[in-house]
Amino acid sequence: MPSRSTPDPRPLADASASGSTRPLEDAALLRRLLRAKDRMDAASSEAWPVSRLAEVSGVSQAYFARSFKRAFGLPPHRYLLTRRIERAIALLRDTDLSITEIAFETGWQSLGTFGRIFHDVTGLNPGGMRAQLQAQPEELARVPACVVKAAQRPVLDSAVLEKRRRAVAATLRESTKEES
């Protein structure tokens, strides 16, 4: 009997478990992941643990986390951090809210955590970022908002703690060099 070419009914978890980086091809799963991503975008100041996102998507927590990273290139937590930092940058640029108000409005529970992570991600503290953004308002006035947002999007291709470890290691290497 000739073999029929039928699609594999198993989810794409097998490929991700073996380390494959090919994009997701399951349209139904992508729609469910987009639903969770849209919820995070709409309410980035809320807590979005993987369990809640997986429930929104209708898949298990582990499968959600793997699939989200394959689909969007970032784990869910880093994606949420990116959105929160983007929103904080916009509020720093466009409002006169205090940094404390911005921290709580963007979903941070602690001003210290907000300031530390903001600095780790952007390289500036929130006050420094505000001063820099407000010093050049006329330069950005003629640029479309979507382009400004894309250019100012924080890069979180590595974990915030990993960035901090690299910065400390570089500082240690510099301070331990022998002077001749």
Reported CATH architecture of the largest domain? Orthogonal Bundle
Most strands sheet: none
Strand content: under 5%
Helix content: 55-70%
CATH topology of the largest domain, by name, is Arc Repressor Mutant, subunit A
Residue stretches low in confidence (pLDDT < 50, at least 5 long) are 1-20
Mean pLDDT: 79
Task: Decide which structural class fits the backbone.
Answer: mainly alpha
Global Rg:
21 Å
Number of strands: 0
Number of helical regions: 11
Shape: globular
Oligomer: single chain
Number of domains: 2
Task: Give a description of the structure.
The structure is a single chain. The protein is mainly alpha-helical and 180 residues long. The protein folds into two domains: 27-73; 85-174, Arc Repressor Mutant, subunit A. Helices cover 65% and strands 0% of the residues. It has eleven helices and no strands. The protein is globular and about 55 Å long.
